[in-house]
Amino acid sequence: MVTLAVDGAPAKLRWMNILSNYLGFGLSPAVPLCFVYVLDKKSLPRHSFKAAVCCEIGYLFFFALSIPYGAVFSVSADNVYTRGRYCFVYVILYLASLLYLSASMVITNRAFQNRSRALICPLMGFLTVVTVIQVALPDLHVTWMCVTLLSLLYFTYCNEMWNQLDALTGLLNQNSYLNRTAEMRSSGGLLIAFDVDSFKQINDCYGHLQGDACLAAITACLKKAYANDG
Can you list the positions of beta strands (E) in the chain? Predict the structure, then answer.
């Protein structure tokens, strides 16, 4: 928004034009990484996420060093913005961050048996189309709108996914259980029920925190064994 306001303004605002473009180009690829971090909030950051963050930091340093040479973008002495010959570096990194977000969402959906995984394709397809439009028609300035809509759509997507899950175990919650068993009446299926032996003794002897840890460990085994089957 600032870049639109100051572009072509008096030359004394040239520094603001440069700074706002640097932040826009530099931080846009970090938005999908932030979403990946939120998606994995119940676990420690994976090595792939740490590597992605290091790539983003390296890109910010490269981008800052390239500003005097106008590699990605340049702002003339009379405060007019133009793209640089290496603007494709930003586009590649931004699309790579979107692909990383897509892969993370697929992996999480598989672990949590989320039925909304089909929404990933139109979501990422929309973002890709908007990005291509921005690259082909730079005067439209739709990148900020793309990032804003990504935030809204991603929040809606995650909110719908978390509402299907039990907060402690990450397994499908009671409402999801009732919906699945209701579907089994018409489609058929097999329901297997089991109880955890002596679980009350764990709570009585070691406390409910250890009981919760025990449930989390059991459900981790269930996910590993049966996540692909039901």
Answer: 73-75, 81-83
